[in-house]
Amino acid sequence: MEAAGLESASSLRRVREVLAIPAFRRLWGVTAVCAVGDWLSLLALSALATQLTEGYQAASFALGGVVATKLLPSMLLGPLAGTLADKLDRRRVMVTCDVLRATLFLSIPLVGSLVWLFVAIFLIEICTMFWIPAKDAAIPNLLRRRDQIETANQLSLVMTYGVAVLTASALFSALSAGPALGYPTLLPAGPIESAYVALTLNGLGYAVCALIVAVVIPEISGRATGPQASSAGVLAMLRDGFAFVGGTPLVRGLVTGIVGAFVAGGAVIACARLYATSLGGGNAAYGLLFAAMFTGVGLGMMVAPRAALRVAHRRLFGLAIVVAGLGLVPVALAPLLGLALVAVTLVGCGAGVAFLTGLTIIGAEVADSHRGRTIAFVQSIVRVDLLASMAVVPVAVGLVGKRSVELFGEPVVIDGTRVVLLAAGLVAAGVGLVAYRQMDDRHAESHAAGGAV
């Protein structure tokens, strides 16, 4: 008990030390506003897309189109966005992107067209693809010590995938329930109006963030000392970035591991609705499975710093992915919802540890001149991985279908989701082992990689 208390006190002290840095604290506040805006926009845009169409099938296609359109820019522009984050002034990149996002969000209610909705989503996500690597690559330069990078990333991720999700959900629910709350003159009167108000709030929030970054966080423009590639052309930097990712064992292991982690997480997300049905549940079970996944991710981010005190970050990264993959095995075999929720939480926990640890490794061990490209590449891999999972997993489930087998003389129906989840878990665990061997700093090759970065 005493050791646990000391550990908690130490964690609290590290958080206070990081938040005591004015530049980081302001950037963290900007991150909070933008994260709430991102989740609020997902809810509002999804709702608006279904309201601007007629018929169940059209609404379904529109909903899927919103998700696909949000993920598409990462497939096209991720590496380029990271390259420009390494070449250009990062503060100017962030301000420009926030001004453009504010303008685009404010334009959606003014135009009121489904076509413009998709065009605006695509352009907004392009801006986001440039904003994220510029912001993430700047964080290590705002801190006082390298050992603060993990805590800084933990604060950012907990805000982005925890507090911001709950805040955005509560805000959108409040806006949507305006008339029921008795304030028809202050809050929107219908689903389309509530979505428009949410998008307007988003636009104003991004405008405020642009002003804050431009005026009170000049430190974002600073770079670490040492050789920089800012004089090189964009194409030369892009080629150098691909060569760096492919030729550096550390980064190659990171990318390999990220693919494995999100194969596991993406498989759960992609077939959660059908899997809930196989458990005998409906929308409530579906919601609980999503909540379990995000709860696990949050727990993983909380556990990662303590685990890193006992296991080196490089090895912890690979081990976390193996845990996430193996966690899918009991998910695939679970006969009851309660057991499934525990197993899904374990999968999320492994993914959360891997994601935080991966960002910490990038911040601490990748040079400032290549950090933006590396972060952008990882972010692109995450999005492409999720998009591929959402496209491939449902098809695979449909192809497998339902099979009836005999177990102990009794017929048992095996749903396609079980087979696909089991296969995804084994693949993720195998990829985690590869990443573990690739990044294990006890091997000479990894020591050489450390020198390279």
Overview of the molecule:
The protein is mostly helical. The chain has 2 domains: 1-222, Growth Hormone, Chain: A (Up-down Bundle), CATH 1.20.1250.20; 229-453, Growth Hormone, Chain: A (Up-down Bundle), CATH 1.20.1250. The chain has helices at 2-19, 22-51, 56-87, 90-111, 114-142, 149-176, 191-216, 234-247, 249-278, 283-308, 313-333, 337-365, 368-400, 416-439, 444-452, and strands at residues 403-407, 410-414. The protein has a two-stranded antiparallel ribbon with strand order 1-2. The chain is globular. The model is unreliable at 1-9, 179-188, 225-234 and 443-453 (pLDDT under 50).
CATH architecture of the largest domain: Up-down Bundle
Per DSSP, the total helix count is 15
**The CATH homology group name of the largest domain:** MFS general substrate transporter like domains
Which radius of gyration do the C-alpha atoms yield? 22 Å
Which series of helices and strands comes N to C?
HHHHHHHHHHHHHEEHH
Overall structural domain count? 2
* 3D shape: globular
CATH class of the largest domain: Mainly Alpha
Residue windows where pLDDT falls under 50 for at least 5 positions: 1-9, 179-188, 225-234, 443-453
Characterize the biggest β-sheet: 2 strands, antiparallel
